[in-house]
Write a structure and sequence with these properties.
MetI-like fold; about 525 residues; about 10% strand; 19 helices; 3-stranded parallel beta sheet; 6-stranded mixed beta sheet; D-Maltodextrin-Binding Protein, domain 2; alpha/beta
Length: about 525
């Protein structure tokens, strides 16, 4: 038997420990180096939303891996002034604050608005751009809708969790306006042109860009409110924030900021007056005055503000889920019957429908129904959501019903036919009831899934439970309380259904032979 050389036990232990320490050190280096570089090294990591588009942050069409925009250039100027190299980290706009707090990057700059709520929870740089919230309407309505007061009883679109959204919600009761929240700044203007909205309120930069892309719109010259873009840092970064402020002031004095903004077509007399006043005041005066009254208070006060909205959103979730499931059950039963009793052509069409709905994302189907079919039929967002989810789940329900119908013993069907029952009566009196017993538990499980998938309809401007929680989180700067409340609502809605499914499964379980 060949001899195997062995490492002494003590030396093996030392080698194992050294290897473990080396691996641990390597892991720490890979994990911690980016964050350390973001705060204290030669790299300044900054976050922005590349979907925000020009002139904020966008991918260069010729070099998609390269970001460009005035926020990109200002971030680069800040990094250069600090003696560092700017490194971009992509993040969704409504997650910038939370990503800064958890250390994904050092500073967020992507059209981030200075608001009282943000000042309470984050560190802000001095403002580097002044914008105006403006009202955009169809060209034919330029004389009818000049102010928000003219839009009584009308639908006005904007981005969720923005200063414009807060402005609209604050004016909703007094002016009888219906705010409509979007996840992007493209579809509001398209819906305005198509007639789904009567006006849009957003930043003047976004409005000017959208009017170039969507003809037939005009923006009223009178601003509704003035705001400022700032950079945000995590609490406790006061020293770095002060350094960044000094760099921004220096770049304003030497004309760098003006050249950047001019290059991107966003320098105007408002910005010139703003910079002059900022430099004269030493940097911090414009953001010291609150843009709007801010509500304080602790957790209970926050709950009191947002709980009614969450309850209302939960009702919307229930209505959409119940309506969609009713449509899915009815259509699924017809599809299942057609695939079993129909001819070859009917079966082929129905199989094609099932595979199409199961093989494509439900999000894509919602977009097609709401936006793609708008040229033929302009469905309201609520009904488009209900129909879209119903059509999608009908494909899955049909497979459940088809399997249940085919699971009924053939002997019982033959016996019914021998008694002279027609196929319709066989289905209604024999096959259908037994198939229903087999299908009901998985149907209930599908209803629970549909209840959760209803969160997708927020892309069609429906403010359901998850969308309202997202707005809550963006305004409060944390997902902890909104996420807990949203999860509690979903559990309260879904647990009874899940319990019912288990009860039915146990009650109707086929007896063992």
């Amino acid at each position: 038997m060949p001899q195997v050389s062995r490492i002494p036990r003590g030396r093996a232990a030392w080698l194992t420990a050294a290897l473990a320490l080396a691996l641990l050190g390597t892991g720490i280096w890979f994990v911690e180096t980016p964050h350390a570089a973001a705060g204290t090294g030669v790299v300044l990591r900054w976050g922005g939303d590349p979907e925000g588009g020009a002139p904020f942050v966008e991918a260069d069409p010729d070099h998609p891996s390269v970001m460009r925009g005035f926020d990109v250039e200002i971030a680069g100027a800040i990094a250069s002034g600090l003696g560092r190299q700017a490194e971009f980290v992509p993040v969704s706009w409504d997650s910038i604050d939370q990503s800064v707090r958890r250390g994904d990057f050092t500073i967020g700059m992507s059209g981030v608005e200075d608001t009282p709520a943000r000042r309470r929870r984050m560190l802000e740089t001095i403002p580097y751009y002044e914008f105006a919230e403006v009202l955009t309407v169809r060209a034919a309505d330029r004389d009818r809708f000049r102010t928000l007061a003219d839009l009584r009883g009308r639908r006005v679109g904007t981005l969720g969790a923005t200063m414009a959204y807060t402005l609209l919600t604050n004016r909703a009761s007094a002016d009888d306006i219906t705010p409509v929240s979007y996840d992007d700044d493209v579809h509001p203007y398209q819906d305005l042109l198509s007639g789904r909205l009567d006006a849009v309120v957003l930043d003047n930069i976004i409005a000017a860009r959208s009017m170039r892309q969507v003809p037939g719109l005009i923006t009223q010259p009178q601003p509704l409110e003035i705001g400022h873009y700032v950079g945000v840092l995590a609490p406790g970064s006061d020293a770095l924030r002060d350094q960044i402020d000094a760099v921004l002031l220096a770049r304003m004095r030497d004309g760098t900021v003006q050249r950047i903004l001019t290059r991107w077509g966003v320098w105007d007399q408002r910005q010139a007056r703003f910079e002059a006043g900022l430099l004269e005041a030493g940097g911090r005066a414009p953001s010291d005055a609150p843009l709007s009254p801010s509500a304080g208070g602790g957790v209970l006060a926050t709950l009191a503000r947002y709980l009614p909205a969450l309850l209302e959103a939960a009702v919307v979730t229930v209505l959409i889920s119940c309506g969609s499931m009713a449509l899915a059950v009815a259509l699924g039963a017809l599809i299942a019957a057609g695939r079993i009793y129909g001819g070859r052509a009917v079966r082929s069409v129905l199989i094609g429908y099932v595979e199409l709905m199961r093989g494509t994302p439900v999000l894509l189907q919602l977009f097609v129904i709401y936006y793609g079919f708008a040229a033929f039929i302009r469905l309201p967002a609520f009904w488009a959501s209900l129909i879209g989810l119903g059509l999608n789940y009908a494909a899955y329900e049909s497979e459940i019903y088809r399997g249940a119908l085919e699971a009924v013993p053939r002997g019982q069907l033959e016996a019914a036919r021998t008694l002279g029952l027609s196929e319709a009566k066989v289905l209604r009196l024999v096959r259908g009831p037994q198939a229903f017993r087999l299908a009901l538990p998985p149907m209930t499980n599908d209803f629970v899934s549909l209840l959760k998938d209803s969160s997708l309809v927020s892309v069609l401007t429906v403010v359901e439970l998850t969308k309202q929680a997202q707005i809550f989180a963006a305004n409060s700067g944390s997902w902890l309380l909104p996420g807990a409340l949203c999860g509690a609502f979903y559990l309260m809605l879904s647990l009874p259904l899940a319990h019912l499914a288990r009860r039915l499964e146990l009650r109707w379980k086929a007896p063992s032979v």
